Amino acid sequence: MLFGGIDIGSLTGKAVIMEGDEIISSSIILVKRNPVLTSELVYTEALSKLNLTPDDINFCVGTGYGRERIPFINKSLSEISCHGKGANFLNNDIKSVIDVGGQDCKVISIDQKGELVDFRMNEKCAAGTGRYLEIMADLLGLSLTELGTISLKSKSPIALSSECSIYAQSEVLNYISRKIKKQDIAAGINYAMAKRVQKMTEKISLSPEFAITGGVAKNAGVVKNLETLLNLNFQPLSVDSQLIGALGAAIFAQSYSISK
């Protein structure tokens, strides 16, 4: 039997196809003009790798920002539950998950089965989101990955005093105009991001068995700063960090299909 998971975020669309406990196909694309088109394109891409059609899938679960607008799914679930389930599936030791999405940041506590116990979310300001890093990277003429790697070369990180994304952009533009090195600006941006996430973890009881999911997990600067601030090492995941929500959705699809 085959199961699908679709995760439509604000920046990317992801799809996972599973057979048993194995991921047999996946896809990640940038979002298109609406969640319907994004979901159809990313699902088709994942299916086409195996010469499959939607009719070959026994059950499909949707998650993410655009989940309610995915036309072909059997059920929709919160990305909070799906990220926890996906991370725990890959590593049963994981009991805490940080997911920084394009529009929000979530700190998630799960039990030994990957079921949601508690969570905190920051969605009031772009400063704690992937979109914030995307804007800052654009100001520096860097990709999101480069924003992380270049920051590791910094010896004199700048300090960003504002927690507002608009004011923080002004600060960065000021540093750029003063010819401050890109790596030092990038280091300050990534530290500020990590500090905001670290503050969220203080409001929830968490296990030290941590994983970080989502696109921001690919930013080495943010990850390194978070590990330092939290005094831990994130557990490695064997699957692309951006696919964890879709993976969790596919795992839920299996359980819902069995219970039908």
Topology:
Layout: E1 2-8, E2 12-19, E3 22-30, H1 35-48, E4 59-63, E5 75-76, H2 79-90, E6 96-100, E7 105-110, E8 116-122, H3 130-140, H4 144-151, H5 165-177, H6 182-201, E9 210-213, H7 220-230, H8 244-259
Parallel strand pairs: 1-4, 4-5, 6-9
Antiparallel strand pairs: 1-2, 2-3, 6-7, 7-8
Helix pairs in contact: 2-8, 3-5, 3-6, 4-6, 6-7
Structural class: alpha/beta
Give the CATH architecture of the largest domain: 2-Layer Sandwich
What is the rounded Rg?
19 Å
Strand content: 15-25%
What do these coordinates show?
- This protein is of the alpha/beta class and 260 residues long.
- The protein folds into two domains: 1-91 and 241-260, Nucleotidyltransferase, domain 5 (2-Layer Sandwich); 95-236, ATPase, nucleotide binding domain (Nucleotidyltransferase, domain 5).
- It has helices at residues 35-48, 79-90, 130-140, 144-151, 165-177, 182-201, 220-230, 244-259; strands spanning 2-8, 12-19, 22-30, 59-63, 75-76, 96-100, 105-110, 116-122, 210-213.
- The chain has a five-stranded mixed β-sheet with strand order 3-2-1-4-5. A four-stranded mixed β-sheet has the order 8-7-6-9, with helices on both faces.
- A hairpin with a 4-residue loop joins β6 (96-100) and β7.
- 48% of the residues are buried.
- The model has no long low-confidence stretch (mean pLDDT 92).
